[in-house]
Design goal:
The chain has about 100 residues and is mostly helical. The protein has one domain: Tetratricopeptide repeat domain (Serine Threonine Protein Phosphatase 5, Tetratricopeptide repeat). Helix 4 runs parallel beside helix 6. It comes from Noccaea caerulescens (Alpine penny-cress). It holds the Pfam family PPR_2.
């Protein structure tokens, strides 16, 4: 898809109306379009500027982005942050996250 149009639509959503689904859509959109660094930047923006916590979909998008952009070190760091818990969510890591890490290595 056209990420510029997606970003325009995303930016039209008032900040307080943005939810985890809208953020995940942007992270995954960038990741699927080979724009891993932009996917990571969007993830970091969500973490820094909102009270939202990443869910398993968010984390998989970030790991996918790191994997396909060759950002192995960054992927490892994000995975370790998840192991240590974002908001102590015990269900954050799923088998697909481990599979993505194996693929990354």
């Amino acid at each position: 898809g056209n990420m510029e149009d997606s970003l325009l639509a995303f930016n039209k959503i008032q900040e307080q109306e943005r939810n985890i689904v809208s953020w995940n859509s942007m992270v995954w959109g960038y990741a699927h379009n080979g724009r891993g660094e932009e996917a990571i930047a969007m993830f970091e923006k969500m973490i820094q500027e909102t009270n939202l916590k990443p869910n398993s979909v968010t984390l998989l998008g970030v790991l996918f982005a790191c994997n396909h952009a060759g950002l192995i070190r960054e992927g490892y760091l994000y995975f370790n942050k998840a192991v240590n818990g974002y908001d102590d969510d015990p269900n954050l890591l799923q088998p697909e996250h481990y599979a993505c890490m194996v693929d990354m290595l």
